[in-house]
Specification:
2 copies of one chain form a homodimer. Helix content of chain A is 40%, strand content 21%. Chain A is of the alpha/beta class.
Chain lengths: 410, 410
């Protein structure tokens, strides 16, 4: 599969935007045509999963219905409409000797995607890799194998209609875990592996990988209210950062409050969260503000709840917030609410996270909200790509040098 | 050391350009002051190395003299004069909801440098890491330990004069190989490892590393003469690409000649190389052109000689050259000599190498020649940085989002 993907990647790198977009639109059409077969396969997976005792949340991730399938097809068309990053010029300069340098985006090559039970990843990842000129090898969860096979068959049929080899999007047909190890060790055949799933999957990938990995780890996100915070913005940003969706990596887990923030603002913010059904684990000096508050334990700082639970601490101003985040944060996404621009700029500069926000919700940590159109994930490492990874993050660059016979001095 | 480096990195990330530049100029001054001690330490290393039976080339890499030491000091000052990449804005856009996005360069954090006998790497790597706001942990070759200790002492003295902690530039004081393993496994403490040395070192690093690696592998570089090549440019580019310096990674190893290139041009080019003392291992159809030519064996294609030896093949035009390079090249640096711009553009687009050149010598594959001022190495991987890595390659980025209370829709 790796060798076939390598050959397909060489072709895809030279495939123009129109052909890639047509292939993805064709794939969307085939997914709609084959809806019956795909949903039947999904029912088989669901039955097997239920028999195996999967829980409600896991079953929901696995489940497809007409609406979700329509979303998958629309997603393929949405990626087809995105600007093609391949060939985009990202740097240009000329040297005194007349050499003209141009840095242009080129595909990474072969991308391995290792994911769990969500079948939509099969189509989403295939679309993003194809549009960025990459071949991909997909290895989904065993519980979704029938659904993934049916989805994959529809997608490659759409590609074939547009004259693109099925080797451009390959699905590992087996469910044995050895296949994952083979992907992680395929140096020279696979250029990067992207794990999409829970912490145990990502941890295994990071431990075993001999190929580069673009991984998503913890999102312990903070919201800090500076003494200069506007009360209305504070209430809106805190409630949305925590409660819009509690299970996403950009959901805030800890609220940091400037110790000299007016107590009415603090009481109002905590009241909003409590009224919305959020459990608040607070520092001792806040406990008296509301009978529904519970005391925080040391383990609460730095915990990624991914649930309607939030830790709340007071800090001595922006310096204290920066120090708390450096100690307990995960360098993912952190926000400050402040009207004092000097405090805001200090926070934005000194907090070492992939995404830092001023007077905006941490839940904007998303490729779509960044304007990337779609994302393959949010990278928490520091190399290559940091934060949401869209089509550009699936490319590298080459340097083209144009001369008229220049040679280098001894 | 890793924890101390992590703390130093947090400080360095907030250190302004003037302070970093002053520290490097101070380090240069201290290196000049301590020249006697550094050269004495180097003599001790040289004596030990000679007794251990090191060969001439290895001894020469280890050797320091007044001129080389002056070069090291001047190198520190040169890096101090480079533009600071930290804080540089690499992207800016605004979303319809009014959120303003800014992507700014920030340091990688802690960089581990593993190198061999050249003591100048101690100063060069320290300077590039410091100027890009990174702390570094240096692990040089055992044979250079005394020299590296003396150089390092001078450098950190210069930093201390400028108020920068010595933890910003740490040298592993021991010579046991276990230290290398510890660096390679220090995930969370070291953000990237850069090996500087021969293939066996790089191979070990790539095999053992649990932290990201920016590595330099083979440089099997090609020069292709298209049928439209200008004879004078062909002769100049071929001679310089191979013979300017045969031991550098950008030195050409294989010459590809369009089978319909006029034979006089081919004879003249091969004559130049032979006259310059280059051994030419050629395809059968070229053997008759000069009595000094020797037949190539299959192993010659794809061999990195790093010596005055070159393989020469004929190919059926630019398509044949692209195919040969895809099969035998190492994706490092490849050049076409052609007056036909269509042939040139096809080569520049379809050859998948970090650097592709038109009518210029492959020996321009160098950070200095790119205008980077200095380089920490040439990356042959596809992620993060590709080709010469200067100060910008030692940074990552953060996304700063400025709003006025925006929250994300459900």
């Amino acid at each position: 599969m790796g060798r076939a993907a390598r050959e397909a990647a060489a072709m895809l790198a030279q495939t123009d935007t129109a052909a890639k977009a047509a292939a993805l639109r064709g794939a969307a059409g085939r997914v709609r045509e084959r809806a019956g077969a795909i949903l039947a396969a999904n029912e088989a997976d669901m039955a097997r999963a239920a028999a195996a005792g999967l829980t409600g949340a896991m079953l929901d991730r696995l489940r497809l219905d007409n609406a979700r399938l329509a979303g998958i097809a629309a997603g393929l068309e949405a990626v087809a409409a995105l600007p093609d990053p391949v060939g985009q010029v990202i740097g240009e300069w000329t040297r005194p000797n007349g050499l003209r340098f141009t840095q242009v985006r080129v595909p990474l090559g072969v991308v391995g995607i290792i994911y769990e039970s969500r079948p939509n990843v099969t189509a989403d990842a295939a679309a993003l890799c194809l549009m960025s000129g990459n071949a991909c090898i997909l290895r989904g969860g065993a519980e979704a194998i029938e659904t993934n096979r049916a989805l994959h068959a529809a997608v490659v049929e759409g590609l074939a209609d547009a004259g693109i080899t099925p080797d451009a999007v390959q699905l590992v047909p087996t469910t044995d875990r050895a296949a994952v190890g083979a992907i992680l060790r395929a140096r020279g055949l696979i250029d990067v592996v992207i794990p999409r799933g829970g912490k145990s999957l990502v941890a295994r990938v990071e431990e075993e990988a001999r190929v580069p990995v673009l991984a998503h780890l913890d999102g312990v996100c903070h919201v800090y209210f500076d003494r200069s915070a506007d009360p209305a913005k504070a209430r809106a940003v805190a409630l949305n950062s925590k409660m819009r969706r509690t299970g996403v990596c950009g959901a805030a887990e800890t609220l940091l409050i400037d110790e000299v923030l007016p107590v009415e603002t603090t009481r109002a913010v905590l009241g909003d969260l409590l009224d919305a059904g959020c459990e608040l684990r607070v520092a001792p000096d806040l406990l008296a503000l509301d009978p529904r508050l519970v005391p925080a334990s040391p383990e609460d700082w730095g915990t990624e709840y991914l649930d309607a639970i939030m830790a709340v601490a007071t800090v001595p101003g922006v310096a204290g917030a920066i120090e708390h985040i450096a100690r307990y944060g995960s360098h993912h996404t952190d926000a400050i609410v402040a009207e004092d621009d000097r405090a805001a700029e200090r926070f934005l500069t000194e907090v070492d996270s992939a995404i830092v926000l001023h007077n905006a919700s941490t839940q904007f940590a998303d490729g779509g909200e960044f304007g990337f159109g779609a994302e393959i994930g949010i990278a928490t490492g520091r190399l290559h790509a940091r934060g949401p990874v869209g089509l550009a993050g699936l490319t590298t660059y080459k340097t083209v040098v144009r001369g008229d016979g220049q040679v280098r001095a001894p």
